[in-house]
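Internal ticket #5521
Category: modeling
Description: The requester needs a full-assembly model to guide mutagenesis choices. All entity lines are attached below as received. Residue total reported by intake: 436.
Assigned to: D.W.
Attached entities:
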Amino acid sequence: MRKILGIAICLLAITSCSPKVEPVAHGGSVNLIQEMQDKSTIVVRSLGYGKNIAIAQEDAELRAIKAVLFSGFSTDHPAMLVESRVMKNNAAAMNDFFVSKAYKDCILHIEKVGSLRKEKGHKVKKMPCDITINTNSLRQKLRQKRLFKMGF
Amino acid sequence: MKRFILISFVLFFTQLLFAQERAKTAMVLRIDTILFSDNQFNANKEYAEMVRAKIAEAAVSSGRFTVIDDDAAKSQIKYMSNEAFIDLSPERRIEYLNNVSNDFSLSCTVTRCQITKKTSGASGYTCVMALTPRIVNTNSSQLEVAESRTFISNFKKIIVRNTVEAAIDEALQSLTQKMVDYFTNNFAVYGAMKKYEGKYMIISCGAEQNVHKKDIFEVNYVTLIRDGNGDFQRTEKLVGIAKVVELLPDGTSRCKMKEGKNQIIQSFEKVSMNSFVQCKLVLK
């Protein structure tokens, strides 16, 4: 009985501590709103979803990084990686990049530009954030993980 | 040849400018010519400079304008024909031109400048002055006069001054507040929406631009779309109305979203490099 209880507590601890970094599937938008003079620093407005501010902010960060990596914004800021190719060839490294939250090092500043509010027709709440990202540093991180070259 | 290309380039981009850009709150006013109807005053440039300085002071005090003088305009033109300018990205060039190009141009005619030498009582000079500024919207293709009216200095309580210059200055001083009110009441202030908190939003203009509590702002969603010729087409959509409830110490204002709250928030959430939420003061 004690063993079962111990295992249950361990499982509970593991599941509650494991990072939930996957963005929730509620659509959303990420737009480039400003680029600094050196072009390597950009500001994007990202909508984050979640039941509280912390989760919504985390979600907004992740969406912003995913948009920079896989979608791109313009010819000056194209996608850094081809998602399907990276997930096929180096899914473990990519997942590790997100799970370890290595992308957070490339985020210079986060500003909450709106309050957490409920979206009509959805159960979750959303919050817009302006996120400043250093794309040079992000590219460097991807190189270290040997992801940057692999994407192309 | 290179200079010609640079100047053509500058002119081309100037065509793409819009009066009220994202970061702009006050309009840029260039004070052009100051002329006296009576030619004897035109001979002395000092008088014209006094009028120019007073108009500039009133325009700046109103918070509606940033004034550029001839020297600043010349140095800007010099920079724009410099290679450093051409090396900037197109977006940077447009941003620079947006910030420095004048939206309005003001020329002024001093229709009356009557100086009287007092010999009885307090000796000295008095001055009664009437001036008519004409303000032209330089962004309009027709260069029509946006505003024009005549101001007359206080002639009921004339103060005697020792010199002609001091008398002119006194007359101009009595016009200052009238001109400040004129600029404040006839020209709008623009601000960009910076954030929202519940039913309140923060806009980028405030006390510095002479915005007051209870002022009403139109909230527009502005998009700039490049057409087939590469020119920017500006579209503006009214999304709501906001009322100023508090002027914040950092120069911004807190406004209550009176109408179209959801539309304002939705527009704000989808802004990008080519779209923004702009608030325009509704003139009383």
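Resolution: model delivered.
Comment from assignee: The CA atoms of residues 139 and 148 of chain A lie 7 Å apart.
Ticket closed.
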